[in-house]
Specification:
Order of helices and strands: EEEEEEHHHEEHEHEHEHEHEHHEHHEHE
Largest sheet: 7 strands, mixed
Distance between the termini: 14 Å
Helix content: 25-40%
Number of domains: 2
Bound molecules: N-(iminomethyl)-L-glutamic acid, fe (iii) ion
Number of strands: 16
CATH superfamily of the largest domain: Metal-dependent hydrolases
Strand content: 15-25%
CATH architecture of the largest domain: Alpha-Beta Barrel
């Protein structure tokens, strides 16, 4: 996702009422300015002493934050599952079984149809303040269809994730499918991806158990990919500890955690990425963010935008949920949605406003980042074009 174009002109964003930098040495600046050149931040400081630039953007007292880093999304798909959502709101549980219908619709779509759908989703994200997004495959589940999803994702983001191990396709032998994912599918997809992921959920008829997940992740790591994991979404299980053991950058969902999971996360390097729009859309209990922060675990917030468990591309909605339902302060939530997402993607050039970082900014039609949670459902955030 190109949040900032490599423009030939320098741009100064001035009269920023509140600048949330996420730079620990700087914190929050008032009456600030940021200068960008060729897509990079070259100056941060008081508005009154900002250097001249080719173009001026008047923030008029608004708040500016690092653009959101949505570190977990499934954006290459066709069709929707509104009927499944309605059934869930009437009491049906979510078990991942509906993924198969998205696989059918996605396989049937042409490259151009998928490309158009993806472009629309990227525009939707940017219009809500997101400037970096990770995109997974996982609705193809054949060698050709997974590779196609990654090729399309790679046209719009550097953060591409091979999720051939999303579910076992209906009618396919489980063992044969794991062999396909770790063999020919990985061979075709590894050159197109930065990450490998698996839906680790033992006890699910559709997803993968601890040993299968280990095979998938180990094979991906062996091909040079870095690991991330869908873990502990539907119940407790080995996902979190496996992610920490294998040095995954992030384990995502973390809805059902044993004490040993929290300890492993606190002792390890793996970020816990929380996806509360999933709990909203599946009527599930929210993950206990306070318990994680109090234990010293680093967290991120992401949308998990997908047509099944969370059809929302809105980081502001996720922030509002995290504050209202999960015990985060507004500042903690915004940090988790920016710097936290960057850490979950092992990036130090996004999620922060400092010299040398990408000029990926979001502006709020509000005087403070607190309004992101305080004004739920109001479209106050948008990515700032500094090209
Ligand atoms: O992160 N948990 C597995 N995968 C997605 C849901 C995908 C779908 O339901 O289509 C998730 O929630
Ligand atoms: Fe997901």
């Amino acid at each position: 996702m190109s949040g900032a174009m490599s423009g030939a002109v320098s741009v100064v964003v001035h009269d920023i009422g509140e600048l949330l930098t996420n730079d620990p040495d700087v914190g929050i600046l008032r009456d600030a300015a940021v200068v960008a050149d060729a897509g990079r931040i070259v100056w941060v400081g008081p508005s009154a002493s900002a250097p001249a630039a080719d173009r001026r953007i008047d923030a008029a007292g608004r708040a500016v934050i690092p653009g959101f880093v949505d570190s977990h999304a499934h954006l290459v798909f066709a069709g929707d599952r509104a009927a499944e959502f309605s059934a869930r709101m009437a009491g049906q549980p979510y078990d991942g079984g509906g993924i198969a219908s998205t696989v059918t619709a996605t396989r049937a779509a042409s490259d151009d149809e998928l490309r158009g759908l993806l472009a629309g989703r990227i525009a939707e994200l940017r219009s809500q303040g997101t400037t970096t997004v990770e995109i997974k495959s996982g609705y193809g589940l054949t060698v050709a269809d997974e590779a196609r999803a990654l090729r399309l994702a790679g046209e719009v983001t550097e953060e591409t994730t091979f999720l051939g191990a999303h579910v076992v396709p209906p009618g396919v032998d489980r063992r044969a499918y794991v062999d396909l994912v770790t063999g020919p599918m990985l061979d075709a997809c590894a050159p197109l991806a930065r990450w490998v992921d698996v839906f680790c959920e033992p006890g699910s008829a559709h997803a993968f158990d601890g040993e299968e997940s280990r095979e998938v992740l180990t094979a991906g790591i062996g091909k040079g990919l870095m690991a991330r994991v869908h873990g502990n979404q539907l119940g407790q299980g080995p996902g979190v500890r496996l992610a920490v053991e294998l040095g995954a950058a992030s384990v995502d969902h973390c809805t059902h955690l044993a004490d040993a999971d929290v300890t492993a996360l606190a002792d390890g390097e793996t970020i816990a990425t929380l996806l509360p729009a999933v709990e909203f859309s599946t009527r599930s209990p929210y993950p206990d963010a306070r318990r994680l922060l109090d234990a010293g675990v680093d967290i991120a917030l992401a949308t998990d935008c997908n047509p099944g468990s969370s059809y929302s591309s809105s980081m502001p909605f996720v922030i509002a949920l995290a504050v209202r339902e999960m015990g985060l302060t507004p500042t903690e939530a915004v940090r988790a949605a920016t710097a936290g997402g960057a850490r979950a993607l092992r990036r130090d050039d996004v999620g922060v406003v400092r010299v040398g970082a990408r000029a990926d900014l979001a502006v709020l039609d509000a005087p403070s980042h607190v309004h992101l949670a305080y004004r739920p459902g109001v479209p106050i955030a948008r990515a700032l074009d500094v090209s």
